[in-house]
Write a structure and sequence with these properties.
four-stranded parallel beta sheet; two-stranded antiparallel ribbon; Rossmann fold; Double Stranded RNA Binding Domain; single chain; elongated
């Protein structure tokens, strides 16, 4: 009976209904962008911290019922407002090109916040499209056990050699293969074990499988 129900749901969900909201996943560059937080919900503090790490220029309002307060901002997040206020801000934002998000009110939002796991430059975002955020959080917690701090260290090493990559491996196909070979090497395991890997060691690992001579 349960399997029949699941099969029925699968068939029904294969084509999104008019009421179903779908999203386009992106990562925004907010460096230098003006962002506004409206409300006094403690949850906004974590969002403010993430915006700050992204280089955004943050302003805050304890409360507001004036849609014009969002004019000139790139992105606005509101929490604790009434449905009527969310609607007014959402409509104003839609007319003026401002990205607006009302916490716990996805119907009056241009985007939803995913659960985020970050390891340095590695960002893994998980979303249930606003349906059940608690599941996204649990999935993030499970992924945290698989992707430890070594992934951040690995990407720092990769960033350090990226400028040399085209010089060392000019052929695009070979360069692509070298990138995958580095990812598939034992470097991540060595970092997980606490071994410090230098710029030179990263270059060595990149070049070794292909017999590429490193230029000093």
């Amino acid at each position: 009976m349960y399997s029949d129900l699941v099969r029925g749901q699968t068939r029904a969900s294969s084509q999104p209904s008019a009421q179903e909201q779908t999203f386009y996943p992106i990562l925004l560059n907010l460096r230098g962008k003006r962002c506004l937080l409206i409300g006094s919900d403690p949850e906004l503090r974590s969002k403010a911290a993430r915006l700050e790490r992204a280089g955004a220029r943050i302003s805050t309002l304890a409360a507001s019922d004036s849609p014009g307060d969002i004019d000139g901002y790139f992105l606005v997040i509101a929490s604790g407002l009434s449905k009527a206020a969310n609607s007014a801000f959402f409509e104003r934002a839609s007319r003026t090109g401002v990205l607006f998000h009302a916490v716990d009110d996805p119907a009056r939002s241009h985007f939803v916040h995913p659960a985020v796991l970050q390891r340095g430059r590695l960002i893994i975002a998980i979303s249930t499209s606003g349906t059940w955020p608690a599941l996204a959080v649990r999935i993030r917690d499970r992924l945290a056990e698989l992707f430890g701090p070594e992934y951040g260290a690995f990407l720092e090493g990769c960033a350090s050699i990226r400028a040399r990559l085209s010089e060392l491996v000019p052929e695009p196909a070979l360069r692509r293969a070298a990138c995958y070979a580095l990812v598939d090497s034992n470097v991540l395991e060595r970092l997980r074990a606490g071994e410090p890997l230098s710029f030179e060691m990263f270059l060595e690992e990149l070049c070794k499988p292909f017999g590429i001579a490193r230029k000093k």
